[in-house]
Amino acid sequence: MADARAPGNRRRPRQSDIARSAGVSQATVSLVLRGAPTGMSLAPATRQRVIAAAEELGYVPDPVATRLAAATNAMLGLYTFSATFPTDVAHSYYPILVGVEEEAAAQGQDLILFTGSARAAARADDPAAVRRVRVADGCLFFGRHVPAEPVRRLVEDGFPFVYIGRRDEAGVPYVGADYVSASADVVARLAAAGHRKVRYLREHDQALASVDREDGVLRGARDAGLDTLVVRTDGSDLDALLREWLDAGVTAVVVEQTDTGAALAGLGAAIDRAGLRCPGDLSLALLGAPTGTRGSAPGGGAAFSGFDVPMRAMGRGAVRLLLRLIAGDLEGPSRRLLPCEPVEGGTIGPPRPPNRTTGRA
């Protein structure tokens, strides 16, 4: 067998080489190099021979093997149910990635990014794709739509994971945003400004974030006694609907914000085409920070009134919660909702007076 010390021999020395050089078993070498309690109880002369042989041979522990021996990889998974990660700074999910990365670095953890583009599965929600996350100590998941079956299996197997966003499934730990309270507060602000007829514009899908926003809007409307109607849209052809609202005396519109921004973009385009100003002709509230290039409202360019979603704090909080689950020392709830920050903005004002020169009643 080739000598690991021989000139020109590029093979990395192994623990078996150290055992042979020190005249001990490979198990003894492993105990000494890992610093295991049993290894520390060995005779000092034996430990010293092992250490000296390791230094002479230039032995460098395999980082993967070292982590496995310690029963932890110091690696956290981050899985998105989409083909690519939202790395564009304008993407609504980007602050989540920033928060996760910041907290992982602060906690001395590496990150493994998983997407739906894996060769192991045709879809991001395929159980084979989700099973890949088990190479990490635990995993963070995010995305508007989450398949129930792979997540159920993770719960049943006891694999540590945290979802970023509220989930309904039993046993799923999460860190999310309190959209219900924040949305109700926005409607209360409209009522305090004097609005009585309000419309809520949202997209068609049934993501929990959308459901919670709608629940909050309806709760706020009930509490304030407002005339409120929920309208769903894909963002196309809102011109006729906007005219209908104005003719019916609607003075404020609340819009949900999503990763697509379809409802907001469609309404903004219709407001621009109608030559209306916000809030002079129509008050506008946004449930979530705007994404993309539309950072200010149509018809005047003021900053949107509404609330900001604590995406960055959700990412950081999810990492902390996951590490507590991995360590098995969680105290308190494993489901947490963070408050959303109100944004004053400039798109909520008093209702327009009747018979204003816009031609709307």
From TrEMBL:
Region span, Disordered: 1-22, 337-361
Keywords: DNA-binding, Repressor, Transcription, Transcription regulation
Pfam families noted in UniProt: LacI, Peripla_BP_3
S-adenosyl-L-methionine recorded as keyword: no
Xref: InterPro entries: HTH_LacI, LacI/GalR-like_sensor, Lambda_DNA-bd_dom_sf, Peripla_BP_I
Annotated GO MF terms: DNA-binding transcription factor activity; transcription cis-regulatory region binding
SUPFAM superfamilies: lambda repressor-like DNA-binding domains, Periplasmic binding protein-like I
Domain HTH lacI-type span(s) in chain numbering: 13-70
Protein name: DNA-binding LacI/PurR family transcriptional regulator
